[in-house]
Design goal:
Blueprint (H helix, E strand, L loop, with lengths): L3 H5 L2 H27 L3 H12 L7 H8 L3 H13 L3 E6 L2 E9 L1 H8 L6 H8 L3 H20 L15 E2 L9 E3 L4 E3 L1 H4 L16
Antiparallel strand pairs: 1-2, 3-4, 4-5
Helix pairs in contact: 3-5, 3-6, 4-5
The protein binds iron/sulfur cluster.
Iron/sulfur cluster binds next to loops.
Organism: Kyrpidia tusciae (strain DSM 2912 / NBRC 15312 / T2)
Keywords: DNA-binding, Transcription, Transcription regulation
InterPro entries: HTH_MarR-typ, MarR/SlyA-like, Tscrpt_reg_MarR-type_CS, WH-like_DNA-bd_sf, WH_DNA-bd_sf
């Protein structure tokens, strides 16, 4: 894809190069927005992970997978944020061997100010006409799906649309059920991101 003449007649090389260039631009955008927030991009990703991930899935291991870092690197990022008073480590009440990450009051405040992080990217995408946007979404979805299959990416999403989700089968406080973890879930928990989310298109044939 880096050979310009080869790209001319090769849509795979052209699209691969386009994605590579995008990754560079995204890096630049998020770095600039992180500098403005006084945090590094991975620190911001960690705060957003703690904010949006279902409480019982907010582990260091899942964080490492979500940001594409090693476990050791994730631990260092977490410790830095604990030192800043933005993040706390707590024991999982259901399994004392597991440590969960949670935002402190100061961290919640900081995370709420990060609502618009990545805005520069959204501003660029906003300029694309609707009909092109629909094709872009399905094309990017296909790439993400393949990268996910190859374990280059973890795609965390809320329960809706997951093959394991059984909505409205429980009681008022925990109305939904997950067949994978065999647990009833509150409405709030089902609306948070889960790294085990499996869309129908990913279900393995029996
Ligand atoms: S595996 Fe699916 S249904 Fe279960 S908690 Fe995760 S997203 Fe929800």
């Amino acid at each position: 894809m880096f050979e310009p003449q080869q790209r001319r007649n090769n849509p795979v090389a052209r699209n691969s190069m386009a994605l590579f260039r995008l990754s560079q631009a995204i890096k630049k955008i998020t770095q600039a927005e992180s500098d403005a927030a006084g945090l590094s991009p991975v620190q911001i990703q960690t705060l957003l992970f703690a904010r949006y991930t279902r409480d019982d899935m907010a582990t260091v291991g899942n964080l490492a997978a979500a940001i594409g870092a090693t476990h050791v690197t994730a631990v260092k990022i977490v410790n830095g944020l604990v030192k800043k008073g933005l993040l706390a480590k707590i024991q999982n009440p259901e399994d004392r061997r597991v440590t969960l990450l949670t935002l402190t009051a100061k961290g919640r405040e900081a995370a709420s100010r990060l609502q618009d992080w990545g805005r520069g990217l959204e501003e660029a995408v906003e300029r694309i006409p609707d009909e092109i946007l629909a094709n872009l979404e399905s094309g990017l979805g296909a790439v993400i799906s393949i990268l996910r299959e190859k374990n280059y990416l973890v795609v965390s999403e809320p329960c809706l649309g997951c093959v394991h989700f059984r909505p409205n089968v429980g009681d008022t406080s925990t109305p939904h059920y997950c067949e994978l973890i065999r647990k009833y879930l509150s409405q709030q928990a089902a609306q948070k991101e889960c790294p085990e989310h499996t869309p129908a298109s990913h279900q393995k044939a029996p």
